[in-house]
Each structure stands twice: as structure tokens, then as C-alpha cells.
Amino acid sequence: MSDSTLSFRGDVFFRKFGIVAAFIGLCILVSILCQLRVAAGDWPDNVFLTAANLMLILHQISINGILAIGMTFVIIAAGIDLSVGSVLAFSGMVAASFATASVGVTPWSGNYGVVVPVIAALVAGAACGALNGWIIARFRIQAFVGTLGMLLAARGFTMALADGNPISAISPDLRWFGTGKVLGVVPIPVVLFLLVFAVAWTILNKSIFGRHVYAVGGNEKSARTSGIKTPRIKVLVYALAGTLAGLAGIILTAKTGSAQTNAGSSYELDAIAAAVIGGTSLTGGVGRLSGTLFGALIIGVMNNGLDILGVESFYQLIIKGALIVTAVIIDPSRKQTAL
Amino acid sequence: MKKSLLLSVGLLALAATLQVAAAADAKKVKIAVLMYGNKAEFVQLMQRYGKDDPAVTSGVADITFYDGRYDASVQNDQAQLAINSKFDAIIVNPMDFEANIPVVTAAKAAGIPVVVTNARLNTKDMNSEVVSDDVLGGYLEAKDVLAKLGCKGNVVIIEGPKGGSGEIQRGQGNEKALAECPPGAVKVLERKTANWSRAEALDLMQNWLSKHHSEINGVIGQNDEMALGAIEAIKAAGLNTKDFAIAGIDGVTDAINAVKAGEMTSILQDARGQMQGSIDVALRAVKGPDFKPLSPIWKQYEKDLAWNDGQSKRYDIPWTIVTKDNADSLLNDRK
Amino acid sequence: MTDPLLSMRGIKKNFMGIKALTDGSLELDRGEILALCGGNGAGKSTLLSVLMGFIAPDAGEILIDGDAVRFADARQALDAGVAIVQQELSAIPHLTVAENIYLGAQPSRHGFVDFTQLNRQAEDLLASLDFDIDPRAVMGNLSVASQQLVEIAKALSHRNARILIFDEPTSAIGDKDVERLFTVIRGLAAAGRGIIYVTHRLAEVFTLATTYTVFKDGARVASGRVSDIDRERLIEMMIGGAIEGEFVKDNTPEDTPLLEVRDLARAPRFRDVDFVLRKGEILGIYGLVGSGRTELLDTIYGLYHGDRGTISVSGRTFRGGAVQEAIGAGLAYVTEDRKDGGLVLCASVGSNLSLSILDRLQRWGFVRRDDELSQIGRAIKMMRIKTTGPDQLVRNLSGGNQQKVVLGRCILTDPKVLLLDEPTRGVDVGAKKEIYRFMSDFAARGGGVLMVSSDLEEIIGMSDRIIVLREGRPAGTFGRGAATAKNLMMAAV
């Protein structure tokens, strides 16, 4: 109906702090469960609530976090990017081919220092992303379909690159991106993740581009009428997601010391989950990066906590599934229907 | 519309060309090899050894690989396709212990010989299986870890995908070795799947290290990738891999390098033995009793593996324990 | 004396502590057409939502034929005979007309939809209403007006519907269709049904309704027979005080041409369109639905390429088909449907207002927040938008205020020419007048306004000249004296 001028007052609080409350609640729950084990004499101390373990969680979410940041931009623009896992693998493979001691896996493979592989991987990721965006904008196909195509194609390119073989013997310089530490405590992936978050947050909230992303996702036709070059925004958004997938590919390759053809399989789902748990609406136009940060943290705490508590992996999947759906159900910023 | 028309014409032309090429090779024995997927290094190795097989290079046989895309039903469809395309024999590396039985049933119904390789199928109808005994593999790797620990201390087991034949059989081997230690001497602190993945094993091992600090003495990875992930986790935690006994199975290149570096033990599953053994068994089934095996593997495993005129129901390709001594020659073999 | 068909007494409803209804009451008898009047926020919609079972009241009672009823959901209300013609277009675009009409009540055979029967039923229904619509047509391909007619048919498809609610049924359809609709409604009333009719177009109250009920601030303030009041009295009751004339018009056209459109055509929508909009002028474009008026504005604004013809602003010709160029040349466009093509509903008032001028507020690609806020503040003040602040979501504004946000976004680009398509559609009386004042002021300051409207009174009241389009071709231009309702209609049909 027309005059629903009423707004739900409580939702402001929920939208801003609900996710933080959920995160803190989860942390408390896990630590209580750990504390019970300590009390029962099973464990000497509460291993969950230690600085080292919390840093470890940050370390473990950095790849998904970086992917989820790109995904948040895409989803806010009313799109979806199913290809980030494959693009991650492709970029990681590209980086590896320029930073390996094993010669001959690709015609050009070798150690080109650190700048070449990093740039090459980021460019590879950006190119895949831009292609996604161009196809979606130019031919007006659904993002789901367009990026599904890239999901398959990029995986194929990954395998084609080294004839289906993994590329290992990664140079120590590149491996620094996965194994290095700042001041001996903060892992490089964490530093990169937080850096990406800060830059992305500024872009999304303060730049014209960011505002255009929200507008395009909220109502493309209105955005167009307002003078926004909507195809350009789409290309840029997917290119950004691709570039970040490229960065994540570098980190994964550096972390595991090998670029594998099956790397990053289904990572897109975790990235989407982080964004959605964080309150980003799949219908577009609504979402915050801070929500995504906590969404990624929640997934990370869950994986870490359930590993520590020794919960079987199938229950892990069930809990994660339930969490995603619950997050969307209780999300008060969902567009109301009917009234 | 026009474009798609052009594309279809192009594809038809391509198909026609392939048809002609196939006709020219009519005398060759056509073998379809159904692989469960092609993203793993081991599969890549099998494919390489398949293409390098003496029967293939000499023109006796012509082999075609199919990618099963990690889906048992896709493989079943591909078997039907191979039968319809008049292949002379089928070699299948099955995705699933049960779900791929129709490959054998369909081939037998069409009167085509079928050989199962690498992983097992829960049927006795195939001509032969050319496999490595996963129970033995699991036993060997666990035995190695426990020997290094002197049957004393705490171990963790990183398992394959739950319910898969690899996880079940290698797990049985692990248990068998553990049971040979005095009761209570070795404690299994944790066991959980990392789905054959290095990245997943890395996260899992990090979490275990966070929980158990330095209590973990040994890591039994049910494949090399996961053992390598554990090694990365140990390094990332600032610990020394020399303080751990670590083992994996398969003998992937990175693992052999890690063996050279003294970080782990790997039990090599012989991709060449499985692939080329299968091809010879298949050729014997097609060509009859006059056929003599062509691959060098029969010579290599003379002591442990009898050819038996290609008539054995099961060929157990022996495992090779990778050591610093044989690592280089194994690596050279792959170049 | 028999009980009235419907009686609602003392309905109360609070939303999160905000009183939406304090005393919702009305009576409706058989054969009666009741005009439910009130500004946006008066409580009409909440009252109707209660009646239709969408929401449960906090207090009060509903009696149908003298029996107290209580609806747990919309289905129960429907079964009791309460049906509505939706204001919002709620059709499913890729289903056919027949499928939309009988959605959820398709005739079936052996568990499958019986399409033969479905189409025959729909055909009969549409024919009985004298609607010229093919039941097999896909909904999304129909014009807005035809879709609205289908909505009406849908409401009437419930055979036992005794209380029919029409919520702004004419907001999207042309005059010819309105006449036909009125005939249908009168017929329905004559057959003994009770009609509740909600509209912002007061003229319709007097042509159609027999009784009226006026709501203000969540309570009934007046009701009676329409024949006892006049328009002015009704408006006074709605706004709670006396008003002067409805339209505001203080502009005078100058001679300087501002927007020149020469020989513009876009097949098959319109052709031979040729006119000059002068400084200070409000130029109306009138035509029935399907006459090509919206498409004309779309093309001038660059949303689509024309087939031929030129468009120039202040003598500067610009390439068609590019919105950015049109904005650069000084055009601003308020589209027909503000929710689709005007606003980003899920965004704030502020970000909607500044959306078109972000490029002017930037430093190195970042928005200068202070400048932005001052521009937003300027627009809120200028358009008198009733909002809690720039951060309020546009979705939560009333229709009139939403429209003012669209106008505000346009005005911040400092346009020379405003293209307005149905600028007061779904807007309450108070806000309407403010929009008229805004148009008049804009033209008086030397701007030009090109306005499309299907509201005859509005277009006559506001325009200096009116071009009538008929089936995509100009069918006459009328100056202020000559533009009478009769003349315009004659040219349009």
C-alpha cells in the first residue's frame, strides 16, 4: 500500500550492530564450550581465547575475506560472481608460472622476481572480471549465467596453463605473501586483508564510484535516468572482484607453496555466505563492508572453533548452512513485501 | 543466429575430420580410458604414462581419455558413449566404489573387455583390476610414522573424503599399523577430513596446533597433498618439521621433493604401473593369447607381480617407499 | 431496517508505538459507491489493510451483514466477499492475462491446468466487462492501462465478491478507459455490491461516488452524501481548513526558444513530432495511453535513439541516445513511474537527491561530504520534502514526498528544461499543490517545462500550450483559451 511511512525503529540498531552481537555471541559460545572442557580436566587451558588463536583465525579468513569484499561490491550492484574461485585458481597459477624454480611446466615458466608474478596475477584476475562485467552489461545476460560461464572457462584455463599439472617450487619471494610476517606476529595475508578492507571501505562509502554501485544495484533504470553510465559501473565492479580474486590467488599459492588446478573450488560460496551473513541483500542496493568483515569472521570462528572442539566436518556444514539462512531470515533490512 | 549456425557447421566439419582420421586407424586397438576427473596430479601422470605406453607409441593401440568430471553418472554415460563408438576395450578409473558398477555391466553386456584401474569397484565382473592395495598403502605410511616415533607419542590423522574407498581402505591400513603398537602407547589426538586438499589440511592442522600446542608428534596424511598442507601449517606456526614424523601416500612431485628435504615420507603409488599394466591387460583381452605385454613394468616388478598371461583377476601394483636415495631417480623419470 | 453491508467501528492500529489508526470507522451499503478520501498518511490504507485481512487491528470491530467477522488472512477476507483492485501493479509479467486473472484458482483437470477452460472463462469475464484484451496475451507485453484493467477483472473474478475496493484504479489509465471503468463500477453497484473507491483525483469523487468518508490523522472526520458537498468543501475537510485555487500558475512564456524538437520519430511509437518549447513556458502533452507520449519524453532525454530528427537546447544540438549529454545540455526527466526509473527506493533521501550531481561534488573521485550535504539540504528545503533527514530511506516517505525527491534530484542539476511525465500521479492534494507551485516557479525563473499528464484538469490548469498526440502523431496544438476538456478529447480520440 502507498502510505507506509512508518519505519521500524529497532532495525537501525540491528542493522548496525546485530552482526557484531552475533559474532560476539558465537565467540562466547565457543569459549564456554572450551571452558567446560578445561573444567572437566580434558584440556590444560582455554585454547580458543588466546591471542595466537585469534590471530590464526584472522589468518585463515584472509583469503575468503578478500574474495568476500569483491563479492560485496558485486552483490550490492545487484549481481553475483560465481567465478571468483576459478579466477583465484587461474591467477594463482599465472603467478606461480612466473615465480617457480621448475622450468618447462609452461613455455615461459621461471623465476621473474616478485613484481612480475604479482602484476601478472592481478592483471589476469582483473581481465577475467572485466570480461565478466562486459559480457553481462553488453549482452544483458544474468550475472548468474555470465559468471557461471567464467567459472568453467577460468578453471579450464587454469588446467590448460600447465597441461593440468600443478606448479610448485614457488620462489621464496612470492611465498612471502603467504608465509611472511610483519613484526614477527602479523601474517602478511592478514595485513593484505586489512589493507584491502580499508581501501575498499573508503571506495565504497566515500567515492562517486561507490555511490554509483549502490544506485545501480538499487534500481538500474533510475540510475540510468540519473545519468550514471551503468554498463561502465558493472564492468568496473566485476573487474574489482576479479582483481581481488587475483590477489587471493597469489596468497593461496604463496601459502600452500603450490598452484593447484583444483585450488579455490567452491570458494565463491563462502564469499557469498560472508557477504550475505553480513547483511548484503542479494536483490542489490543494500550492504556494508563492515557486515561482510564480520560475516567472514563468523565463518572463520566457526571453522576454527569446530575444529578445536573436534566436531565432525559434516556437522560443520549443517551449522554453516543453518547460519546463512538464519542470517537472511532475521535480517531486518530485507525489503518488505506486501505492505 | 547466424553465428551459432556457423559454429554448428564448424563443429560438424570437425567431427567429420575426426571420423576420417579414426577410419584410417581402423586396425589399431581402440581403448577408451575413463578417468574420474583430471584435476589431480596423479591423474595427469596416469594420462602421461598412457600416452607414453609402448603399445601406443608403436601404433598397436590408440587410447582416448575421458574426463569424468568427478561425477559417477558422467562416467557411466561415457562408458555407453565408448560402447556406441565401437571402442575395443574400456579402462575405467572409477569415481565411486558402487555407483560406477554400471560401467562394467554395460561393457560386459556389449562384449567389450573392461579393466578397472587405480581405484576399486564392488563387482567381480570386470576382466581384471590393476590397482595398488590402499589398505597396504595406509599400513605402510602409518608404520613409517610409528617406527619413527618408536610406537610412542601422539598422532593426528588427516583423512580423505568421508566414505570414499580411499579414506576407508587407507584408514583400515592406518588402524592396522596402530594396532601393532602396544595398547595405549600411541594416542590419536584428532582425525578429520581435509578432502584430499592441501589448502584445507593447512587450515585444519593450524587449528590442531593451536589447540594441542606441541603435543602432536606425528601426522598421518592419507594422501601427500594433505601431508604437505600439514607441513606448511607447521612451518607457519614457527615449528620445525624435523620434530614431527609425517607421511603421505601417492608420491606426487612436491612430496618427493619434501622427502629429499627430509620433511616427510611418501608412499609412491605407481601411476605408470597402473596405467601401462591396464593397457597390456586390455590388449591381451582383445588380441588373444598371442599377445605379449609391452610395458617395462612387468620386468621392473618381476619378483612381486606375475603377468600370468593377463588372466589374473587382480594385479596389485606394488608400492614404493620414497627415500632420499630413490627420490632423484623418481623425479628424473617424470621429466 | 436491515443491517448495512459493511460496518467498521473504532478500528485502532499502532505500528511500533506510532498511531496509524485511532478511530477507523465507515459504513457501506449495497449499491453504494463510497469515496474514501484523505491525504497520504490519513490512515486509509491501514484501514483497508485491516478490512482485507492483511493486518490485524488492535481494537475495533468489523460487521458484514450485521455479523461480526475477524479475518486472520487475506484468503478469509476474500471468502467473506471482500476483494480489491490493487493500486500497485502486482501482475506476474510473464504469465498470460488469463493466468494472472485466475492465479491460484485455475480450473484444472487431472491435476493439470485446463487452459482451454481457463481462457474461455477469462474471455467471458473480459467480454462481460467490455474490456478489449486478449486473455492469451502475455501480461508484460500489455500497456500499463491494460494491465490495470486486468487487475480489475481479477478482482471481479471472485464470483461472490460483494465488497469491492478500488485503490487508485485510474492512476495509470487514460480517459477513455476511465469512462469505461466508471460504467463498469456503476453496473457493479447497481447489481447490489458495495464499492469502496479510493482516489486522489477529486473530480472522480463527484462523477462516480454516491457517498463519501473523509479520513484525517487516523480517524474519520466526516461522511455523508456526495450531492450535499462541493469540491472545495471536500478539500477543506481533507486538509482541515480552507484552500484557495488548486493550480498555481504565475509564469509567462517569453519568445526565446529553449528546447527545439525537429521532425523527431521513433518507429513505431511516434513520428512527425515538431515543436519549440520557449523560456518560461509550460508545454503540455496530452494523449491517450499508447499515444507515444512517454516514448517521446524517453527519446528526447536520450534513453532511446530516435530514427530521425534533431533535438537542441538553447540552439545547441546534441546527439540523441545518450543520457549524459542530455543532462549536460540542461535536461532533467521525472519518469512516469517513480519507483521504476526515478528513485533508488532502498537508498536514503540524501543519496537519491545527490545522485545526478556527484560528478560536480568530487575531488579525485571522492565525494566532498560537506558540499554534498549542503546541496541535499538545499533540495530538501526548496522542495519542502517532509523527511526526518537525509539518512531516511526514500521507501519510507509518502508518495508525494517521494515525488518531491525525484524533482529535487532533477533540480540540483540546474536544468533548463524539465521533462515531467505524470508528475502528480499517486500524490495527495497538499503535495500536488506544492508540485504545481514548483513547476510554475521554475518556468517563471526562465526554465521550460514539458509535461505529460492524463489528468485533463491538471494539464489544462497548468499548461500554456498543449500538444495532443494521437497514435504517435501530433493531432493539434491548443493555446490557453482553446484548450478545453472537450477540444482535447476530440483531438485525442
- Helical fraction of chain B: 40-55%
Distance between the termini of chain C: 47 Å
Helical segment count of chain C: 16
Major sheet: arrangement of strands of chain B:
2-1-3-4-5-11
Uncertain residue segments of chain C = none
Under CATH at level 1, the class of the largest domain in chain C stands as: Alpha Beta
Classify the oligomer: heterotrimer
CATH architecture of the largest domain in chain B: 3-Layer(aba) Sandwich
CATH class of the largest domain in chain B: Alpha Beta
Give the overall pLDDT of chain C as a whole number: 86
* CATH architecture classification name of the largest domain in chain C: 3-Layer(aba) Sandwich
CATH topology of the largest domain in chain B: Rossmann fold
Radius of gyration of chain C: 24 Å
CATH superfamily of the largest domain in chain B: Response regulator
Task: Give descriptors for this structure.
A: 339 residues, mainly alpha, ABC transporter involved in vitamin B12 uptake, BtuC, 2 strands, 69% helix, disordered N terminus, disordered C terminus, C: 493 residues, Rossmann fold, six-stranded mixed beta sheet, 26% strand
Please provide a written account of the structure.
The complex is a heterotrimer of chains A (about 350), B (about 325) and C (about 500). Chain A has about 350 residues and is mostly helical. Chain A has one domain: Orthogonal Bundle (ABC transporter involved in vitamin B12 uptake, BtuC). Helices cover about 70% and strands about 0% of the residues of chain A. The longest helix of chain A has 30 residues. Chain A is globular, with a radius of gyration of 21 Å. The N terminus and C terminus of chain A are likely disordered. Chain B is α/β, with parallel strands linked by helices and about 325 residues long. Chain B folds into 2 domains: about 160 residues, Response regulator (Rossmann fold, 3-Layer(aba) Sandwich); about 140 residues, 3-Layer(aba) Sandwich (Rossmann fold), CATH 3.40.50. Helices cover about 45% and strands about 20% of the residues of chain B. Chain B has 13 helices and 12 strands. In chain B, the strands form 2 sheets. Chain B has a 6-stranded parallel β-sheet with strand order 2-1-3-4-5-11, with helices on both faces. A 6-stranded mixed β-sheet of chain B has the order 7-6-8-9-10-12, sandwiched between helices. In chain B, helix 2 packs across helix 11, helix 8 packs across helix 9 and helix 10 packs antiparallel against helix 13. The radius of gyration of chain B is 22 Å and the shape is elongated. Chain C is an alpha/beta fold. Chain C has 2 domains: about 230 residues, P-loop containing nucleotide triphosphate hydrolases (Rossmann fold); about 240 residues, Rossmann fold, CATH 3.40.50.300. In chain C, about 30% of the residues lie in helices and about 25% in strands. Chain C has 16 helices and 24 strands. In chain C, the strands form 6 sheets. In chain C, strands 6-9-10-3-11-12 form a 6-stranded mixed β-sheet, sandwiched between helices. In chain C, helix 12 crosses helix 13. The termini of chain C are far apart. The chains are: A mainly alpha (about 350), B alpha/beta (about 325), C alpha/beta (about 500). Chains in contact: A-B, A-C.
